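Question thread 4412

I'm putting together a teaching handout and wanted feedback from people who do this every day. The idea is simple: show students a protein as raw sequence, then show them the structure tokens that encode its fold, then repeat with a second protein so they can compare. Below is the first pair exactly as I plan to print it.
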Amino acid sequence: MTESTDATRRRSTIALLASTETSAMVLYGLYDVLTTVGAVYPELVKGAPERELLDVRIVNADGRPFSCAGDIPVRPHAGFADFRNGKTLPDAVVVCDMYIAVTATPTARYPRECAWLREMHAAGVLLSSVCSGSLVLADAGLLNGCEATAHWAYRDMFHRYYPEVTFLDNAALCLKAQDRGIVTAGAVSAWHDLAFYLIARYCGYRHAIDTAKVFLMTDHVEGQSPYAVMTRPMEVKDAAIADCQAWIAENYQVERPVESMIDRSGLGARTFARRFRATTGYTPIDYVQALRIEEAKQELERDQRPVEDIAAAVGYEDGSSFRRLFKKRVGLTPAAYRKKFQNLAAMANTYALNRQPS
């Protein structure tokens, strides 16, 4: 894209949809980065800013000021009415994160937002989301039949409340539904990946690269799996399954763990499997494997024992099988995971020691 084209092209409009549950990091991070596209890089390199290429607007339902998470003040540029009734529509909407506890009910929390998003989608506006923002898209019915992502901790919530959505808990940025006008990003820091995508789409490859250099933006090529932790809320409505969950949490390393749980529950194998999956979102063997891998991850983070010893400690006698399963679930080999997180642990320990009073 040439400079003359940049100087004359129509600015694309990006609407950032926010609420009282939105984090300031996502909202203002996106706003700060997107508003500088085309302007800041030439200022840093040549000493003179150029034209901003994106028109970025913070939007909420009524356009009135509010405070987002942490009581941070927000003064929206527009309300929904500013993009209705024949008025100019945005090119894209970003549904910022809208925090909800993993034990809460996500449905019917944002009826006005859902209605407006359906209108925008029907009008051909690109819809995107960051983290829990995809729950709003799901509640609007816009993700039905789609593959989508959000923070890995919402896996069970999607399974329970939005079964028509194929939830990808590993993806940092999901483009599987972009031909249907929808792009979703994972955990909150994945707004970097979404911003890079939007800049490349509306301003071109060169501006995306230049902006990444300015802000030291990075992608999350490994996805979310290396960071994901198994969520294990106890289901109290099914006492037999709850008892098995509590038991297997302390006995995941035993031989034939699924058979032991079935015997403990007093249920038939098929009935147990059906009730276990309905309760936890996992098949019994997947649940056991997830527990074992989670324990192995914690061992790898803090222990220098050989991988085979850690595999045996969590219930796998065959080190090769353990390595294959670990790579499939985590996205890294055990050795690569150990290197990544022991390096982080060493850095954190150094920083902690440096701040101690002498």
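The second pair follows. I'd like the answer to focus on this one:
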Amino acid sequence: MLVVAVLLVVTAALVWLGPDRATVRLLSLVQHHDDRRWRCIDRLLRYLSRPTQTRQAVAWRMASIELCQGIVAELATGRTPGEALARAASCLDLPDPDVLRPVVATARDGGDVATALERVARDHGSEGLSRLAACWRVSLTVGGGLAALVERVGRSLREAEAHRAEVASQLAGPRSTARLLAGLPVLGLLLAAGLGLRPFAFLFGSPPGFACIGMGVLLDVAGVWWTNRLVAHAQQAGT
């Protein structure tokens, strides 16, 4: 029972603080085990790794904006579209530098850049790269100015990102309040221990105590999870 209680406390801390490198490492260690308990831990760690995926999505959105700006700047100097894309991509700080290398190679060889961009956008969920691919295809098909199209896409991406940041700042208060409320039970236990009430002896020294701490941690985790879900839903509705 003590091990179960400790695992529940660790789970609550992970849900509250979010995943880190240790969580990702644990995920890589358990994904090869066939035992049912390891599969349950695998599902839990995959759920906790979602904020990391969110950070990667934000990084890709910012990289798409910078790529559009770089292409417009390179085209303004008189470079060809392929050279502009290659030089702009080489100056980016990408989450994964190897992702755009096939696109750069296709641009330098004079291949189908739009298809290469669409493939990368589909694999990594980058809306900016998808729009850039559409600009490239329209420029080749209709003959429109690529610089004007890319500049317009970059402007729309910047406005969308600014709107996302505004919504996230408005939701920061409820999220912080939920985390504070999730930590209040621990503060209450420490306060009770400071007053000499010996709460830990009851919680970890008797079956009713184990039941209380298990139920309390489960309710705390459920509350944090439900609050995060509401905030995520509100953020998706706002964007």
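Top answer:
Good format. For the second protein you could add a caption like this: Residues 146-194 form the longest helix (49 residues). The chain has eleven helices and no strands.
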